[in-house]
Amino acid sequence: MKYAGQRLVVTLITLWAIASLTFFMMRAVPGGPFAAEKELPPAVLANLEARYHLDWPLWRQYLDYLYRTAVWDLGPSFTYPNRTVNDIVADGFRVSAALGALAIGVALVAGIGVGVAAAVYHTRWPDRVAMFAATLGISIPNFILSGLLIYVFAYHLRWLPAGLWGKPAQAVMPTLALAALPTAVIARLVRSNMLEVLRQDFITVCHAKGLSPRRVIFVHALRSAVLPVITYLGPLAAGVLTGSFVVENIFAIPGLGKYFVQSVTNRDYSVIMGVTMFYSALLVVANVLVDVAYRLVDPRIRL
């Protein structure tokens, strides 16, 4: 209970700071949500500002924003008059979450497998190939990789569709584009920690007891080597979900990233602030779950 109370206080302070920073940064941007190439008549502009409470003093808008965020009423969208930000988040996040879950699953399975193989075959060709691939995965941005995948598999080979969402084949390329970087990072983390764990005394004892090499690696060594990967899961979840903003636009996926990019172009304040707060809350919750997972994997760690 003490740990939960401490984390709750830190979480609330963090979310308040993010909400405040987002609000004042949006208000500091020149122009407004109704700025367009053709100026609106003053009477029409005044009516629009009154409808969305933009004619209130700044301090009143700020307090109203904090209250609505606390009760999770993110307000109406300026670009989509008949939709609220809550509706946009609910509709778009279902797609973004599915894509993110696929990417994280691929990154964990492939990254841990490649890292273990590289550590077991240290200084041999599987290790060199794995680390070369990991270096490429870290070096190539996901928007560049997306273009390469579209050119090779959609345009040249015609094996996969170039975009949209709804069929299994349409999820292959965006998943690979999002999973490349975290797969490479996880592979390097697992490899370096496996090399350190395999030199420890308890691994020697396991071999002396006659345990099979597979059991020693996957039961005893991997459990200790995977702890840094658990630490990486919190930022990984946030990175994959926010990284999907660009990938979703490249592959024309109707996820939350599409709405966010459009809201930036249209200066839709409420959508920008709502999506920012939503992902901030996800990141905070993910970090708390990482701390709890630490305790489950290694009972020696205290919360």
From TrEMBL:
Keyword Transmembrane helix: yes
PROSITE patterns: ABC_TM1
Protein's name according to its UniProt entry: ABC-type dipeptide/oligopeptide/nickel transport system, permease component
UniProt keywords, alphabetically: Cell membrane, Membrane, Transmembrane, Transmembrane helix, Transport
Subcellular location: Cell membrane
Topology class, membrane: Multi-pass membrane protein
Transmembrane segments: 97-121, 133-157, 169-190, 225-251, 271-294
Residue ranges of domain ABC transmembrane type-1 in the record: 93-290
Family classification: Belongs to the binding-protein-dependent transport system permease family.
Keyword Transmembrane helix among UniProt keywords: yes
A single Gene Ontology CC term: plasma membrane
PANTHER family: INNER MEMBRANE ABC TRANSPORTER (PTHR30465), OLIGOPEPTIDE TRANSPORT SYSTEM PERMEASE PROTEIN OPPB (PTHR30465:SF93)
InterPro entries membership: MetI-like, MetI-like_sf
Organism domain of life: Bacteria
Main subcellular location: membrane
Source species taxonomy: Bacteria, Bacillati, Bacillota, Clostridia, Eubacteriales
Example GO biological process: transmembrane transport
